[in-house]
Structure prediction request, 244 residues.
Amino acid sequence: INPGNSGGALVNLGGELVGINSAILSRTGGNIGIGFAIPSNMMKIVMNQLIKHGTVKRGVLGVNIQTLAPEIAQSMGLPETTQGALVSQVVEGSAADKAGVKAGDVVTAVNGRPVKDAGSLRNAIGLLAIGEKVDLSLLRDGKPRRVTALVSERDTAAEAKAAGAGAHSGLEGADIVDGPNGVLIRSVAEGSPAAQRGLRSNDVILAVGRTRVATVAEFRSATEGQPAFVLQIRRGNAMLVIPI
Prediction:
């Protein structure tokens, strides 16, 4: 796979389509033998949605999730080998909320298929049709549970409200709240725009540019209408500047 191959077919030796080329890993821009492609089963679903709706409608549960790390599992009284997606927040009125999912639950399977991490849960739900029923296997207080949810369509406004950002698309996926000494980033969804820009859980936003912000309301005011800005972040004892 070389530059320019993106969007082209990835075929096996039998001439069967197995994926659509998307990117390469390269330090110089040339081929070093590591390439990436979107799986053909995912492309089938996207293709059918484009034909039917003219756009891709991804299913959502209405939760903020993060991969269950071994140390987090241990702190929750679970075996370190437990795999799944930890629910850090449930959006009010969402599919997950109506199904009875609660913050602190660990999703371990979707329709009987194991969930290894946050990414696999996001993909499993995103590929389901809007309105489709989904069986979720959960761990709550160490005990297994099963709930059924009705996959809903993504509500960007509700997600932004729940995340507390609502000011800039570059911060999508960051759950921010008023902190004692600034705006606290409570969690960052894996693979989200906020995560891609380097924001992490427990970061504290001190200022937008040179404007100090102590509350989410001040943060929204400082970023409203701004196409780009710089955040002054405190991470532990370190100070960082992150462009958005």
